[in-house]
Amino acid sequence: MTRSTWRTRIGFILAAVGSAVGIGNIWRFPWLTAENGGAAFLTLYLVLVVGVGVPGLIGEFVIGRRSNRNPVGAFDELAGRWYRPLGAIALIACLVILSFYSVVGGWILRYTFASTTGAYFAAPQQYFAAIDYGLGAVGFHVLFLAATVAIVYLGVERGIELSTTVMVPGIVVLFGGLAVWVSTLPGAGGGYDFYLSLDVSYLRENFFSVLPAAAGQALFTLSVGAGTMLTYSSYLGEDRSLAADGTLIAVLNTAIGVLAGLVIFPLLFSLGVSPGQGGPGALFVSLAGAFAELPYSRLVGVVFFGVVLLAALSSAISILEVLVAYLVDEHDLSRGWATLGTGGIFLVTGTIAALSPSAFGLLADTLSNVVLTAGLIGFLLFDGWVLGRLAREEFGRGAGPIAQIFEAPWYYAIAVVLPVFLAFTLVTSVAGIVGIDTSTGSAMALALIGITAVVLTFRRHGIPVERSA
Ligand code: PFF
Q1: For residue 389, is it within any domain?
Q2: Is 7 left (phi over 0), alpha (psi -120 to 50) or beta?
Q3: Would 447 be classed as within a structural domain?
Q4: How many domains, in total, are found in the chain?
């Protein structure tokens, strides 16, 4: 069976942007920004998107395009069976993320419907509390999952490429319109201040709690670490600049994320709602409650949640596609059976998250940061220490003169600097989860020891260069 490829370059870019832009930008990002000091978080996050997210994204692309395989098969193809577990981490990350993502997708779907009648207008807090977990949440999760399965079932070109080519421009146009409209509301200025003015002392005092949260969000928002970008780039045919494509994708994702903030924060401030309440319900309770006060409230609600729904769907399909690609490539399943089978798994795991707030919180808040970080560390060390020269060669394939300047800095960043940094944030967040208070020094030391151990193991089992040349 011949493997699918993207029809056009722009089709690939829009699909990748569709994966990146999602509830991470619209729901998780404002929630974390509000919890972590507004602009202080935004600043650190932007730095990390440029310094960690983009090189990491290119690191995934290198493996995907070089191998033309799913995450597990990619490592096997490039370096042998011994490396397959690196891809298994990515599969686990996909399991973790889509399990809660589909529940949030279900909430959004419900709010899109509920906006047509204004069902949540009178008592937004109570409305959300009544629908967030339980059988209703299960029902809407199943509907959202069914839509995801349907698109992936149709395949890379007819399903993913076609749908994201419509969805992504739709998201930009609708959000752009909302941002302009929101700026005309009285009192919107307070939102811009909160969002855009930097409180350096907050950042200084809380640096080590804000850092892992911002790093995790930088990966989450770019869909890096779970193999989605690796899989999407495995459908690339011709040689184009991975660095240029990666940068463009990150710029578009960040622009849409900032645009979402320019809708959400001014809107909240104009209605006197504090964004600091935080928690996963923030978007639904405060924002949805705010809509009730506005002219054309139902229309605003339908448009807003409709856009968020498109964004969520275009990300969910990228996660499902990783598992489908794995089953199709490695186990010779037809796309149809692979899609239905993985859909069945998420039917169960998502139902658990839709019934249990603690399972949901664990998946959405802490575990997803951990699996994405661990996944990306594996990808980057593989690029840096196993592929080595070949990774640089792949980076250079199709690269223009500007991208070529970045080849060496990119390589040293992904081989050395980023793994150490990511291991540090990983140690800090795992310590946070199990309740150990680590000092910066001990977290750094553990990170260094861990990375060195992995690198030494990789060197020992490293591949002779000819094998995948
Ligand atoms: N980037 C998506 C968002 O911001 O909503 C979430 C995501 C998709 C994370 C795919 C990871 C992933 F592999």
Answers
A1: no
A2: alpha
A3: no
A4: 1
User: What is the 3-state composition of the chain as percent helix, strand, coil, each rounded to the nearest 5?
Assistant: 85, 0, 15
What confidence tens digit (pLDDT) does each residue in 371-392 have? 999 999 999 999 999 999 999 9
Q: Tell me if the pTM is above 0.85.
A: yes
Angle of helix 389-396 relative to helix 242-270, nearest 10 degrees?
Answer: 80
The CATH number covering residue 104 comes to: 1.10.4160
- C-alpha separations of 14 from 54, 225, 311, 334 in Å: 16, 19, 12, 26
154-174 pLDDT, tens digit per residue, is 999 999 999 999 999 999 998
Residues 6 or more apart whose CB falls under 8 angstroms from that of 174 comprise 303, 306, 307
| Alpha-carbon separation of residue 214 from 47, 110, 210, 361, 444 (angstroms) | 9, 29, 6, 18, 18
The protein residue with its alpha carbon nearest to ligand 1, atom 10, reads 223
Helix axes 242-270, 162-183, angle to 10 degrees: 40
Which two tokens mark 60? Answer: 């995934």
Residues with CB under 6 Å of ligand 1 are 19-20, 22-25, 97, 220-221, 223, 226, 228, 315, 318-319
Residue 14 maps to a domain: yes
- Its domain, for residue 106, covers 9-384
- Domain membership of residue 344 (yes or no) is yes
Give distance in angstroms: CA of 312 to centre of ligand 1.
9
